[in-house]
Design goal:
Elements (H helix, E strand, L loop, with lengths): L1 H15 L2 E8 L12 E11 L3 E11 L6 E14 L16 H20 L1
Antiparallel strand pairs: 1-4, 2-3, 3-4
Length: 120
């Protein structure tokens, strides 16, 4: 979980150019176990940008180094908030959607953002 949080922070900091903190995590359910000795790979992508917050999706895979078999263990979504030097939330740059995949992830993320806002 810490590795996924770190990966999401890297993506958010690179995009915003600011210190970022984790505001929330949407479910962290494991679909498959991660065994001691597995190599863990994380793939993080920026899916949606609000005024000061960003949704980062993280896909986690475990690789059995003996066999080379890779297993998707879980995916999760982090909401990261950019902070100014005074510690208050600060606006972040808009997200440029360049590919169909970018647009698909952004559309799906917008639905999740709307659901999150209803829960508050």
């Amino acid at each position: 979980m810490k590795l996924a949080d770190t990966a999401s922070a890297v993506v958010a900091i690179r995009h915003s150019g600011c210190l970022c903190v984790t505001a929330s995590v949407d479910r962290f359910d494991f679909h498959a176990p991660v065994y001691v000795g597995n190599l863990i790979s994380l793939h993080a992508s920026l899916n949606h940008v609000g005024r000061t917050s960003m949704e980062v999706g993280v896909r986690v895979e475990a690789e059995d180094l003996r066999t080379g078999k890779k297993t998707h263990t879980n995916s999760c979504y982090f909401t990261m908030v950019a902070l100014a030097m005074d510690g208050n939330p600060t606006p972040v740059p808009r997200l440029l959607l360049e590919t169909e995949e970018d647009r698909r992830r952004n559309t799906e993320a917008a639905l999740r953002v709307a659901i999150r806002k209803k829960r508050i």
